[in-house]
Write a structure and sequence with these properties.
- The complex is a heterodimer of chains A (418) and B (382).
- With 418 residues, chain A is an alpha+beta fold.
- Chain A folds into three domains: 98 residues, Orthogonal Bundle (Butyryl-Coa Dehydrogenase, subunit A, domain 1); 110 residues, Butyryl-CoA Dehydrogenase, subunit A, domain 2 (Beta Barrel); 152 residues, Up-down Bundle (Butyryl-CoA Dehydrogenase, subunit A, domain 3).
- In chain A, 47% of the residues lie in helices and 14% in strands.
- In chain A, the strands form three sheets. Chain A has a four-stranded mixed β-sheet with strand order 1-4-5-8.
- By secondary structure, chain B is α+β, with helices and mostly antiparallel strands.
- Helices cover 52% and strands 15% of the residues of chain B.
- Chain B has eleven helices and ten strands.
- In chain B, the strands form three sheets. Chain B has a four-stranded mixed β-sheet.
- In chain B, a hairpin with a 2-residue loop joins β9 and β10.
- In chain B, α1 packs parallel to α4, α7 packs antiparallel against α8 and α9 packs antiparallel against α10.
- Chain B starts with 6 loop residues before the first helix and ends with a helix.
- The chains are: A alpha+beta (418), B alpha+beta (382).
- At the A-B interface, β9, α10, α11, α12 and α13 of A face β9, α8, α9, α10 and α11 of B.
- The structure holds flavin-adenine dinucleotide (FAD).
- Flavin-adenine dinucleotide sits at the interface of chains A and B.
- Flavin-adenine dinucleotide (FAD) sits at the interface of chains A and B.
Chain lengths: 418, 382
C-alpha cells in the first residue's frame, strides 16, 4: 500500500519535473540565464506569464474552493509541486501579495460578489494586489491610522496617505484600512475597502530602500472615490479585517506562497545553495565546506529550515484537534512563525556574509559579483523581514501577551483605554 | 595603560567633531557617494591645513609628530562622520608603511606631499581570492636592469580612482614560500599600463576598485622596505589599519546608539514613546553594554600598537573581531528600532550598516581573526 503510494508520488514528481523543464524560460537555472532584477515591468510581466502557466497546469491556486477559481489536489502532490519548484527556483508571482494576503482576507470577510470577482484572478496571477495599511504615524500602532473616508451616496471619499506599501507599483487593487468614524473608540473606528488603483484622485510614488530599489512606495488619496460595494466586512470592523490580513501574511510559512515568492524560494532551497557556496568559496585555498565552523553553521541552518517548514503542518494539526478550546489564541500563533522566519533568515544572511568575506561587498551589477549579487542583496533585504508584517518586537509582544497570557505593558494598556 | 584621553586629545577630538560636522555633513557625504573620485579636493586641503594627513609624521616631513593614539582619536571622529575622503587609504595603507620602511629618499619625496594634501595613495594588495594571505598574491614584478615590470590584477583596492600612487604587493622571486618573495612597490597611477575599474560595492562612501597592472614600469628605487621582505610589512599594515578601523567602528557605533536612543525617546506608538517599552529598552541597554566592552578592547589595541608591543597583533585581532561583531549588531538594531524609516535610503542608518559590513570584511573578518587569536593563544601556552 505504502509502496504503491510512494511509487505514484514519485511518478508525479517526474511529471512535475518534466513539466518544469519544458515550461520554465529557456536557459533557466544556467549561468547564461539573465535573471531579471528590480521591480520592473519586464519582471512583473514574466511573473504574470509564469503564474498563468502554472495555474493552467494546475500547479498553483490551492486551498480555495473551485467556485472561486481554486484548484483541488491531494496534499502530498501539493508538497511535491512546492518542493520541485523550490528546487529549480521559479520566476515568481507577479504580486505574491494577492496570494499571501488578499485572497485569505477576501475569503474571511469578502462579500460573495467580491470573492467571485477577485479571487480567481489572484489565483491565475492576472491581477496584483497591495496592502495599504501603514502610515507615517501608524506602523506598529496600526489602529492609529489617520487616512479618512466619508460616505457620499453610494460612494466613499478617501483622503490621506499610506506608506511602506510593498508592490505598490504594479498593483491593480489594494486593501485599504481607513478611519470612518471620528467618535468611535480605538479599534472600532476603522473600515476596510478594496480600492482600484486606476481611480481618480489616487497617486503612487516610489520610496527608496536601503537595497537601492523601491519595492515599497507611498500611496496618496486625494478625494479618491470607492464604491460602497467595495467595503470588506462591516463598517467599523476594519481592525478585524486587518488582523486577518496580518495573520495570513505572518503565517506564510505554512501556506500557499512558499514556492511562489522569490524570498521564500531562497529560504526554501537555501541549504543546497549554502552548501554549493561553501564548496565554491575557498579561504586560504581550502573550501569552506571542509571547515568545521561552516559545516556547523550550515547544519544549523538546515535544522532551522526544517523546523520552520514543519511549523505549518504542526500548527494545522493543533488547530484541528484543539481549535475550539484554543479559541482566540490560535490566530496569534502566526506571530511565532513570522518571527522565526525573519530571524532565521537574518542569521543565514550573516552566515552568507561571513562566507563571502571580501566578496560580501560586491553588489548586483558589479564586475566579479558572486551569483549576480543575489547573496549580497539578501544581506540587505533580510533586515526588512523583522520590520514588515509586524516588527519582531510587536510579534514578541503578541506571543507573550496573547498566547502566554502575560499582563500587558503599562503604557500599552493606557493607550488601549484611551 | 591609559584608557582615558589627555587634554590635548580631548581638544583634538572636539576640533575634529566640529570640523567634520561643519565641513563634512551627511549631505556632502551623500553627494560624494555618486562622485567619480569620491572626495572633494577642497576638503582634503582643509584637512591638511589642520595637519591631519601628517599627524603622525615627524616634523621634518611636514608632520605634527603626534602618536598612534592621537590618530585613533581622529579615526573615531571620521568613523562617526563617515568621512568622504581617502584618509584611511592614504594614511594607514600608504603613508605609514612609507614612514616606517621607506628609504630616506622616498620619505622625503612622499611624506611632505601627503602631509600637504597634495597626494592620495592606497594599497593594492588583495587579488582574485579576496583573502588576506601571502599565497593570494600572484602579481609579478620582473627585474629589467634598474627597473621592474609589474603585472597582475588587484581587487578591493580602496579609493583607487582618487589615488595618485599605489603601494603594490608583487612577487619578486620564484620560491615555494610566498611570505619571503613579496616586495612592495610605489607605482604612479598615471604610469602606462595601470587600469582602474570600478566595483559596485555596498559601501558607496569608501569606494573599492579593481586595478590591473600590465607591464608597468617601476624604478627599483621605488621599493618600500627590503626586496622580498614585503609580507612582514603587509602584516604590520594590516595590524595598524585594523586598530584604526576599530576606532572608526567605535565612532560609528556611538553615532548609531545616540541616534537610536534619541529616536526611541521621540517616536510615539500606542500613545507613549517607543523607548518606554521594555522590549526596546533592553535592546538599547544591550547595545550600550556591548559598545562599552568593544571600546576598551579598541583602546588597548591602539595603545599596544603605539608601544610596538609583541602582543599587539593579538590585541588587534581581538579588538577587530569584537568591534566588527558589535558594530554589525548595533547597526542591525539601529535599522530595526527605526522601523520602516530605518529601512529607507533617505535615513542615514543604512550608511552605517553598510560601513559596518565593509569594516568587518576588510583585513580579515571576525572568523578569520578568531582563528588567529586561537593560534596565538596556543603559542602563548607553549
Ligand atoms: C520591507 C518592508 C515592506 C513593508 N510593506 C508594507 C506593506 O505592504 N503595507 C503596509 O501597510 N506596510 C508595510 N510595511 C510597513 C511595516 O508594517 C511597518 O514599518 C512596521 O509595522 C513598523 O511600523 P513603523 O515603521 O511605523 O515603526 P514604529 O511602529 O514606529 O516602530 C519603531 C520601533 O519601535 C518598536 N515598537 C513599537 N511599539 C512597540 C511596543 N509596544 N513594544 C516594543 N517595541 C515597539 C518597533 O518594533 C520598531 O522597532 C513594510 C515595511 C518594510 C520594512
Amino acid at each position: 500500500m505504502a509502496d504503491e503510494k510512494t511509487a505514484k508520488l514519485e511518478a508525479f514528481r517526474k511529471e512535475v519535473r518534466a513539466w518544469l523543464r519544458a515550461n520554465l524560460p529557456k536557459g533557466w537555472g544556467t549561468p547564461e540565464y539573465k535573471v531579471l532584477e528590480g521591480f520592473t515591468q519586464e519582471r512583473h510581466d514574466l511573473g504574470k506569464w509564469w503564474t498563468k502557466k502554472c495555474y493552467e497546469a494546475g500547479y498553483t491556486g490551492f486551498g480555495y474552493p473551485k467556485e472561486y477559481g481554486g484548484i483541488e489536489r491531494p496534499r502530498e502532490e501539493i508538497m511535491v509541486i512546492r518542493e520541485e519548484m523550490a528546487r529549480t527556483g521559479t520566476p515568481g508571482a507577479p504580486s505574491s501579495l494577492g496570494l499571501l494576503l488578499a485572497a485569505p482576507t477576501l475569503m474571511a470577510h469578502g462579500q460573495e460578489w467580491q470573492k467571485k470577482r477577485f479571487i480567481p484572478k489572484i489565483m491565475s496571477g492576472e491581477e496584483s494586489w497591495c496592502e495599504g495599511f501603514s502610515e507615517p504615524n501608524a506602523g506598529s500602532d496600526l489602529a492609529n491610522v489617520q487616512t479618512y473616508a466619508v460616505r457620499d451616496g453610494d460612494e466613499w471619499v478617501v483622503k490621506g496617505q499610506k506608506c511602506w506599501t510593498s508592490m505598490w507599483k504594479f498593483a491593480d487593487f489594494g486593501i485599504l484600512i481607513v478611519k470612518t468614524d471620528l467618535k468611535a473608540p480605538r479599534h472600532r473606528n476603522l473600515t476596510a475597502f478594496i480600492f482600484d488603483t486606476t481611480s481618480k484622485g489616487f497617486e503612487r510614488r516610489p520610496l527608496r530602500q536601503m537595497t537601492d530599489e523601491s519595492e515599497f512606495g507611498e500611496l496618496f488619496f486625494d478625494d479618491m472615490r470607492i464604491p460602497h460595494a467595495n467595503m470588506m466586512g462591516e463598517q467599523g470592523r476594519g481592525w478585524y479585517v486587518a488582523m486577518t490580513t496580518l495573520t495570513a501574511e505572518r503565517s506564510m510559512g505554512g501556506e500557499q506562497v512558499v514556492s511562489q515568492q522569490g524570498g521564500e524560494i531562497r529560504l526554501g532551497s537555501g541549504v543546497d545553495n549554502l552548501i554549493e557556496l561553501a564548496r565554491a568559496r575557498k579561504r586560504f585555498g581550502k573550501a569552506l565546506w571542509d571547515d568545521p565552523v561552516y559545516r556547523q553553521k550550515i547544519a544549523q541552518a538546515a535544522i532551522e529550515e526544517d523546523a520552520y517548514r514543519s511549523w505549518g503542518p504542526a500548527f494545522r494539526a493543533k488547530a484541528r484537534k484543539g481549535g475550539a478550546s484554543l479559541g482566540a489564541t490560535l490566530s496569534f500563533e502566526a506571530s511565532v512563525s513570522k518571527n522565526y522566519w525573519a530571524e532565521s533568515r537574518q542569521r543565514r544572511a550573516m552566515l552568507i556574509e561571513d562566507m563571502l568575506g571580501s566578496y560580501s561587498q560586491l553588489m548586483s551589477g558589479s564586475k566579479h559579483a558572486v551569483a549576480e549579487g543575489s547573496w549580497v542583496y539578501e544581506i540587505l533585504r533580510s533586515r526588512g523581514a523583522s520590520i514588515e508584517m509586524g516588527t519582531t518586537e510587536i510579534n514578541r509582544n503578541i506571543i507573550a501577551e496573547r498566547i502566554l497570557g502575560l499582563p500587558r505593558e503599562d503604557s500599552a494598556k493606557k493607550a488601549q483605554e484611551k | 595603560m591609559e584608557f582615558g584621553l589627555s587634554e590635548e586629545q580631548d581638544m583634538l577630538k572636539t576640533m575634529a567633531r566640529d570640523f567634520l560636522t561643519k565641513e563634512c555633513p551627511k549631505a556632502h557625504v551623500r553627494k560624494m557617494m555618486d562622485d567619480e573620485i569620491g572626495y572633494a579636493p577642497a576638503l582634503w586641503k582643509k584637512m591638511a591645513d589642520l595637519g591631519w594627513q601628517g599627524l603622525v609624521f615627524p616634523e621634518e616631513f611636514g608632520g605634527s609628530a603626534m602618536n598612534f593614539r592621537d590618530l585613533a582619536v581622529l579615526s573615531e571622529e571620521m568613523g562617526r562622520a563617515l568621512i568622504a575622503a581617502p584618509f584611511f587609504s592614504t594614511v594607514m595603507l600608504f603613508g605609514l608603511p612609507i614612514l616606517q620602511h621607506g628609504s630616506d629618499h622616498l620619505k622625503r619625496e612622499f611624506l611632505p606631499k601627503i602631509a600637504n594634501g597634495e597626494m592620495v595613495g592606497t594599497l593594492a594588495l588583495l587579488e582574485a581570492d579576496g583573502d588576506f594571505w601571502a599565497d593570494g598574491i600572484r602579481a609579478k614584478a620582473l627585474k629589467r636592469g634598474n627597473h621592474y615590470l609589474i603585472s597582475g590584477a588587484k581587487m578591493f583596492v580602496t579609493d583607487a580612482k582618487a589615488a595618485d600612487y599605489f603601494l603594490v604587493a608583487a612577487r619578486t622571486q620564484a620560491t615555494d614560500d610566498p611570505e619571503n618573495n613579496i616586495t612592495l612597490f610605489l607605482v604612479d597611477a598615471k604610469e602606462w599600463g595601470v587600469y582602474v575599474g570600478k566595483l559596485k560595492t555596498m559601501d558607496m562612501i569608501r569606494k573599492q576598485y579593481e586595478v590591473t597592472f600590465s607591464n608597468v614600469n617601476v624604478p627599483a628605487s621605488h621599493i618600500v622596505g627590503e626586496l622580498n621582505g614585503g609580507w612582514q610589512i603587509i602584516k604590520q599594515i594590516a595590524v595598524q589599519a585594523n586598530a584604526q578601523l576599530c576606532a572608526e567602528m567605535i565612532g560609528g557605533g556611538d553615532w548609531v546608539l545616540e541616534t537610536t536612543v534619541a529616536y526611541c525617546k521621540d517616536r510615539v506608538a500606542y500613545g507613549a514613546p517607543i523607548g518606554s517599552y521594555q522590549g526596546l529598552k533592553h535592546r538599547l541597554a544591550d547595545m550600550y553594554m556591548e559598545l562599552e566592552h568593544a571600546r576598551p578592547l579598541m583602546i588597548r589595541a591602539v595603545e599596544y600598537v603605539r608601544e610596538a608591543r609583541t602582543d599587539a597583533e593579538l590585541a588587534v585581532s581581538m579588538a577587530k573581531s569584537y568591534c566588527a561583531d558589535v558594530y554589525e549588531m548595533l547597526t542591525n538594531n539601529g535599522v530595526q528600532l527605526h522601523g520602516g524609516i530605518g529601512f529607507t535610503w533617505d535615513h542615514d542608518m543604512h550608511l552605517y550598516f553598510k560601513r559596518a559590513r565593509w569594516s568587518a570584511n576588510s583585513f580579515g573578518n571576525p572568523t578569520y581573526h578568531r582563528d588567529l587569536i586561537a593560534s596565538q593563544l596556543e603559542k602563548q601556552l607553549l
